[in-house]
Each structure stands twice: as C-alpha cells, then as structure tokens.
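Moderator note: this is an archived Q&A kept for reference. The question asked for a predicted structure of one protein chain; the sequence and the answer are reproduced below.
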Amino acid sequence: MTDAVIVDAVRTPIGRRGGALSGIHPADLSAHVLEALVGRTGIDPADIDDVMWGCVSQHAEQAGNIARTAILAAGWPESAPGTTITRACGSSQQAIAMAAAAVISGQLDVVVAGGVESMSRVPMGSAAPNGEHQPSTVLDRYGVDRFSQGLGAETMARRWGLSRTRLDEYSLRSHELAAAASDAGAFDGQLAPLPGVLEGDEGIRRGGSLESMAKLRTVFDENGVIHAGNASQISDGSGALLIMSSAQAAARGLTPLVRIHTTVVTGDDPVVMLTGPIPATAKALARSGLSIGDIGAFEVTRHSRRCRWRGRSRPVPTRRPSTRSVGPSPSAIPSAVRGPSSPPGWSTTCATTVSATACRRCARRVAWPTPRSTNCSAEHSPQFSGGYMELKGLSTAVTGGASGLGLATAQRIIDAGGQVTLIDLPTSDGAAVAESLGPAAAFAAADITDAEQFAAALDVADGRGGLRALVHCAGAGRRMRILDRDGKAGSADDFEFVIRLNLIGSFHALSLGAERMARLDDIDGERGAIVMTASVAAFEGQIGQINYSASKAGIVGMTLVAARDLASKLIRVNTIAPGTMDTPLLARLRDDVRASLAASIPNPSRLGKPSEFGELAVSILENSYLNGETIRLDGAIRMAPR
C-alpha cells in the first residue's frame, strides 16, 4: 500500500495582532512559505499536483480561493492548482489529512498542504457582520443564544476544577519554555524569516509573572478564570508542508521527516466545543492500533489545550495534563499561531521534532521512515511498562526539598528527567534553591502540619502535570527524656511537637498526596508512588529520643498498612529508614564528633551521603513491584543506647 510522508515543513514566524506581519496581505504571507518550500527542497513547482490550503475566515482578503491567489503571488506556473479548505480551527490539519489521502489513494503524487490566517487584516467574526452566524434552529437545540470558545473554556475550567492560578502557572511556563526554545535555536530549522520584518515568533511573552497575570481582568465571565494572559492570542502567520509517498521521495532524493500514520475526524459538544481533541485522540488511537505511550510528540490545537487537563473525564488513556508537546519546548503555546486561525505551524514543529527525536524502536513501531536519534522523546508503551516507572517528564513533589535529603532527592529526580516541586517552610531557602535547579523545579511554601497549606502546595505539583510521585523528607527531632534531671515528667509539649511534625505530617503526605494521584488515569496498573522517611531510631532509639523514635516508628508502622489501603487506588507506599547521614544538621558538629559517628558505622565506615538517599528514593519510585517495604539505609549500624 502506498504511504504518505512529510519531506519538509516550513512556516513564517508568528506575528501578533497589529504586529510585524499585519501589513502583509495573507496571500503574500502564503506565497512566502511556498517559495521557501521550493527553495529548501528543490522541487519544481510544475511537479506539484495540488496545493491544499486551510483558512478559517475566507472573507475579504482571504476570500476567492486564497490558495490559488497565493500560487500566483509566488510566481508559480499558471497550471499549478490550489484549493482552500475550512474545518474551522482544524482547517490546515484537514488540508494535511486530505493531501495524505490523495497520495495514499494514488490520485496525486506531490501535494503541498498548509494554510494561512491574518487575524489582523481579517478579524475573527468579520465574516458574520451581524454577529452570530448560526440559525435559530441550532441555537434552540442547545438552549443558547450563541456559541463561544471563551465560555466553553470557562465551562471546562468549572467542570474539571481548574483554578485561575493553575491555568496561569501553565500559561506562564508555556511562554518560558517557548522563549528558552527560541533562544536555543530550536525553531530555526522550520522558520522562513521575513528579513527586516520579522525573524522570530512575536507572540512569546518574556518576563511575565504570576503577580502581573493576577492583575488581568477576566474576559468572558466576571467570576471566571480566562483572561488575556492565559487565553489564545490573536495572530498572523502561514505554514506549508510538502507531502508525497516514500517511494516518490526516494526517487527525488528527498529524505522524509515522518510518515502520516492515521487521520480521523469527529465532532463533540458545540457549546463546550474545546473538548474535541479528547474523543478525536481516542478515535485515532483505536484506529491506528497504537497506545498513548507510543506517541512521542503531541500537537493539540492551541486554544483547545485545556483539554489536556481533562484526565478525569473520559476513559482515554493519558500520561499527564502537561503532556509532552512539540520539540524542546513542551507546551510552548506561543510557538505557533493560536486562536481560531490554523496555519500548520504546529504540524511544522511537530514533524521536525519527531524526525529529530524518534528512536529506532519507535520508528519501527509507527513506521517512521528515518529514525535519527537514540535519545527518544517517546514513552515506550506505556510509561510504567515492565515494572519500571520512568520519571522522565513526570511531576513529583519533595517535602523538605530546600536542603539535606530532600534537596539531594530533588536533584536526582531532575537528573532522571522529572519535574519536581520543592515543598518547604516559607522561611526556608526553597525559592532560591528551586531557581538554582532550573526550569524543572518549582517551590511551594507550606507547613506540613497544616493540612490546608500542604494541600495547596501539592496542588502546585499537581498542576504541573498531575502528581505521580511524592518523596516525604520533612521532619525534625527535639531531645527529651521521660524524666528530667530532677525526676520530673518530661514535657508533653515536646513530645506532641515531634509527633505532630513527623507523624501527622507523614499522614498528611500520605492522604493528600494519594488524593491527587487517585484522580489520575492509571498507566499499566499504576497511578503513583509515595516514599516516606523514617529513621533507624524507629528500631534502636537512643536515650533522649523518646518522641523522635515514637514518631519514626509510627511511620514504619503506617507503611505496610498504607500500601495495602491504597492498593485499590494503584498507589504504592514505601519508607526509607536512614542512619547517620551527612546532612546540614550534622555539618554543625565538631570534626572529632563527626569522626566518632563515622567510626561507629560498620561498612562503609563513614557518614551516609544525601545523594545516596536520593538514589534510593528514585530507585524505589522506579521499581513498580516494590511496595509496603521499609528499607534501612545505614551501613549496617545498630544504634547504641546513647
């Protein structure tokens, strides 16, 4: 059977409304990428059988079959045909699907698919000068007076409990990732700059903050969550892809980027409307025979990106809301046209990304013709497959993450490719530490004994893609004796303080962490994992540790029970009981005292390293069969009474 492959993909930089591209006729924007495509591939325009061009607002300057107008503007032969296609926000994606179908069927050999939208020159809604373009029969069917993407987004936010803060954090991170990718040159290979006009994407917002976004007024609902800072931009741009069979590409000496594997279309609730990618994804996976874990890069219509957070709505397998998107800039929304316009900037980025990051295993699985990398971005079907929970791309949280064991664990998670939210006291250095760890880290201040504060901090981690792993390191001790030197009873306050911090704090970690993990779809029979921290004092407590030993013994006692209790939720629970570790607390001791402590440890005769704790924590998270265990990390020490 004939296949269809994309051999090149190119786009203009994306301009903002009223920005650098607003002075250019949309046909000329289209002509620019058509000329670039020819120049990059050496294809003769006379050999192109058709140009299929997506455009939503086929009105004013975009009327009259703009595909054909663009061909003439590009100086191509008059014999070159073109057709303009609309499927609303998926118009250019539909052009790609139709081009692939024509090639696979043998009707056409070489097709250019793409599209254009100049929302500056042809404003959204201008094709319906009287406002709503739907007849009363349709509006009456749904009991509304209009269909609105903005109101649809507000409905989704309410339905799935998406707070404004959560949306703002996602959007801010998107712009930060897009800026980093752009600065690193990640988009250079797909861009056709307009010298002297625009050479890079104009819609990326740099230097934003949650504080500045919080000042923006919501647009569609006075009490809603959607505003200019987290909504789709109004943009201008154009993009084009060259599509043919792999045999045709070989005959022309062209190297395919990717093969077009499966295309589907479906409809959904027109009132909410932005949920459409959810059933479309399920349909595509069912038809293709692939699983969500086989997909290494995702393109989602950007104004529909909130569908990624829908993990609790329908039985479609998902990894996490912030699913790996395009190239080195996951969820880099501004990198392509957003809003109802649909030039295939997304497909351009997606195609070039997949070609650069497909490993041979994935290439064989989905028949990509040219695997080019051993550093694959795909999850190997599924992410937790074969008893192994891959941390790459997962959202995790570490309590006590600003120092000591927690910091070492956070660093190890980042080294494994995970995202980590450091949870520590407001008085800690957590914010500075997170910044030093880079974009994979975030900080959330909380007192773990305060359930409300702890829950809010975990929501930060959950909002970064769905909390899949929690390592609970926070805790402390306070020396006390049952009877003081005068024979009087020890302070119950001292006992209660440590119990509350270590034991109640650990219960909060278990219950609040599990609550968030349980909302996620399972992947290969697992939703997440929790690692708690006890101590060898749970087994051989020393004099003066009655409160500390009791609290840590309580954590050990909870471990198996918690693992059994949460088994039905597919959440694992394990505990590490460290011995004498070289933490900042021990660093304050005199050298001779530290040496004495090290000498008491049989083998290796030294203090434990925080990095060794972090390594063990990550190993526990990754091993999907390890559950309900307390593991001593102590160099075989058995503590003396004093």
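Archived answer notes: The first helix runs from residue 26 to 41.
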